[in-house]
Amino acid sequence: MKVIVFLPAHNEEEAIGEVIRRIPRYIHPNIEVQVLVVDDGSTDRTVDVAKRAGADFIYRHEQNRGLGAAVRTGLQQCIKLGADIGVMIDADNEYPPEQIPDLIMPILRDEADYTMGSRFLGTIYGMKWHRRIGNYIFTFLQSLLLKTWIYDGQSGMRAFSRQAMEEAEIIHDYNYAQVLTLNLVRKGFRLKEVPIVYQVRTTGQSFIKFTAYLKHVVPAIVKEMCRPVKRKQIRSVQQR
């Protein structure tokens, strides 16, 4: 079985090397782990640092297209590279690569098709109050729309079964967090949250600004919820 961990990255030369080195390469004798970096038009040394840190694959956007576009590319490349499970983790060193085995376990056990690392079920260090409130608001909105309780709808650490990757649709380039979950759960994929330990970044800077986030994300949520989706016949990762 192949697990591909992919990192969307834009100007993350200070953090991405450590993230890649911390990714567990041995999870089980029958599981091969590989690392893919999706470079979203970086103008720094992100690609060189990632290669030296041990990334197996690099896919580059020549221009910065947005986080949603980078995640979409990551899912597509995982499929092309033959992944049975895809794991997405931010390249900013805020999320714990050591917990990737915890994240994929519900998929391996056929308890879920799509998992998210939950900061609010685990621990959070250093998150600013306005980001925390924004997270609460958007997560509550997702919970209402899906009629199922979600604790951390904006997590930057997620895992997908092969079928979930094949069926996932991200309808805008700016971001992915809400529309991806709305899309997959509406199609019948089973979501499970896994508690993780979270530490706010100490290098670089976030390119997500709250006003721009509202401007792009709210219309995308409306668009996603107005789109008809067909529920899928779900197969387990072992049935691939």
Give a quick rundown of the structure.
The chain has 240 residues and is of the alpha/beta class. Helix content is 37%, strand content 22%.
- CA-CA gap between termini: 10 Å
Structural class: alpha/beta
Number of helices, counting only DSSP H or I runs of 4 residues or more: 8
Which outline best applies?
globular
Give average pLDDT, whole number: 92
Query: Would you report the number of β strands?
Result: 7
Helix content: 25-40%
The CATH superfamily turns out to be Spore Coat Polysaccharide Biosynthesis Protein SpsA, Chain A
Please trace the helix and strand order, writing H or E for each element: EHEHEHEHEHEHHEH
Low-confidence stretches: none
Instruction: Supply the CATH class.
Output: Alpha Beta
Share of β-strand residues: 15-25%
Biggest sheet features: 7 strands, mixed
Whole-angstrom Rg: 17 Å
Which architecture would the CATH scheme give at its second level? Answer: Alpha-Beta Complex
**How many structural units, i.e. domains?**
1
Sheet with the most strands: spatial strand order = 3-2-1-4-6-5-7
CATH topology term: Spore Coat Polysaccharide Biosynthesis Protein SpsA, Chain A
GO molecular function, one term: transferase activity
InterPro entries: Glyco_trans_2-like, Glycosyltransferase_2, Nucleotide-diphossugar_trans
Keywords: Transferase
Pfam families: Glycos_transf_2 (PF00535)
Structure description:
The structure is a single chain. The chain has 240 residues and is of the alpha/beta class. It has one domain: Alpha-Beta Complex (Spore Coat Polysaccharide Biosynthesis Protein SpsA, Chain A). It has helices at 16-22, 46-53, 67-80, 100-108, 129-146, 162-167, 177-186, 210-226; strands at residues 2-9, 32-40, 57-61, 85-89, 114-125, 157-161, 191-199. The longest helix is centred in the middle third of the chain and has 18 residues, at 129-146. The mean pLDDT is 92.
